[in-house]
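Quick one:
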Amino acid sequence: MRCASSWALRRESGSFKVLVQNRKRMKETIQNLSGKLSTGWLSLIILLLLLFTGCISAGKERIQEVKLDRSYLTDIRRFIDKNELFPAYQEISYLEREHFSGISQAEVEALKKEIIDKIKLDLNSHLEKPDYKKALQYYRSMQQVAPADLPDEWSIHRLLFEQAEEYGSSGNQALALLFYLRGLTLTTPTESELLRALSFAAEIGNVEVIKDLIKRMEDRGFSVADSRRRQGENIPPVQKIVRGTVTIWVNRGIKIERGVGFPDRVIGSGFFIDKRGYLLTNYHVIASEVDPKYEGYSRLFIKLSDRAHEKIPARVVGYDRIFDIALLKAEVEPDFILSHTASVDLEAGNSIIAIGSPGGLENTVTSGIVSATGRRFLQMGDAIQVDVPLNPGNSGGPLLNSAGQLVGIVFAGIEQFEGVNFAIPINWINKILPNLYNEGESIHSWLGVAVQESDKGLEVVYTVPGEPAHRAGIRSGDILDTFNNNHYSRIVDFQAALLELDFPSLVAITWLREESSISGIVCLAPRPFSPVELALERDSRDNILVPLFGMRIEKVGTFFWKTNYIVKEVLKGSIAEETGLSANDPLNVEGWKVDIDNRFVVLRLFVKKKKSGFLESVIQLAAYLETDTFL
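Output:
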């Protein structure tokens, strides 16, 4: 831990121990003398001993404090020696804010310069290799700590264009176009840059992007070939799009129930996004292929739309449990590729269609409308609610608008309610897709805080011990004001910004505390799949009730074996508020269960609700381990 509280604990654990030892020796001395001296002389000696030991302990305490302060420098040096430069810089940023008396500003500045020089060397090394992905990570970090030291000939958009060219040369035109479009938003593009993006869009047949790029070129007075114009007018029919979809088939052997064996199969849907045979589906469809807890038989196949009786072996390339997405690879050349790089705005009432294999019935097309957008259904991001008829087997299939554009991926439905189904918007998929090509599980960046949306902004309600925000000194009640010079008032927008950054990366954050504004540099860390599980390992149950149920409690006493609490705060819109709990309600915790396998937590309370006239009642609260409030 690297925060003010941990420094205080260091100080207390050292100097307080010295003080106690001195007091103990003093007491023994007094006891030895008490039988030999008169009361007057004894009183005088006691007074002198108190003064003397007080001076010694104060001096030793001061020495201890200085030693503990300087241990930060040892930690920073250790980071530097291991070339962990970004965590080292976060520690420097903390020391600059705290101004420890045992550390001179000259020492801090010297270490700061050494770290920046090494970051600059690493950036140049990545540019020379070239490794543009790493170079982008270092460039963005240096923008926050030493923008004047950045090489003049490079920029964020140029690095994105170079990454795009790398993807294009390897045959991944989909990602090439995606990175070109990202770069185009950051600059006034040249004619050649627009033409290059247009060529990638044409190669994968993204009609909407072609039309958009043609308009941008015309607005700038650039000429466009007639052949390109015609490509922007050819909206693919649904029959052609269907040929880009597949049925996912996971054979898990035989399942025995009551002595009878049944075929254990998982059926889902998917679609091609890459001419080399890469396709997307849901993680939960193929989970048995990669889940280390699954110990049974599992074999993955796909069935093409026009070859439904042929099972083609496939493998999992990358997967993302948070967004329930998996990237697969099959040794086939698809007839059609569904382009995923268009930026599509959906509104309630828009017409949509879904393609999939409900119950194993291949090439099934259903239609409906968008019921709502912005549903907080996942830990990160949001979801589209649709009324399209969906059934088991549709999971992982594409969701299209009336123009044939890919707008989402079907992932869930509520069985008890007909026509209440959900899809992941394609803009979230675009943010995570590049990492899915890296093999294995996709891990995102995070700060390690839970927040709530309030009138004052994004208010911190919990910090995970040992994670970046906690080490930086951010605490409950602080308001996150800016992140890399941008202000965010919605959790989902902040999460989108985090998805753009790899870890470790340095980011600039300002947060408000009472009447003060505090600025610091924080090093992003890898986000765990379940932040609550990590918090359960490192923190007490009472503290974790805040991100889980939205209530803060405080001990007020113990009677026999029971601990009495009082509710100190209830967060708006939380489970605690919906249950009717409010500040100053007295309570006892009767039960607490964490079910890791089924992914939920149950809290049983004996409470006297103020809103109910302090009548005694027993209530039970339940929450999923995967909450959507963590950044």
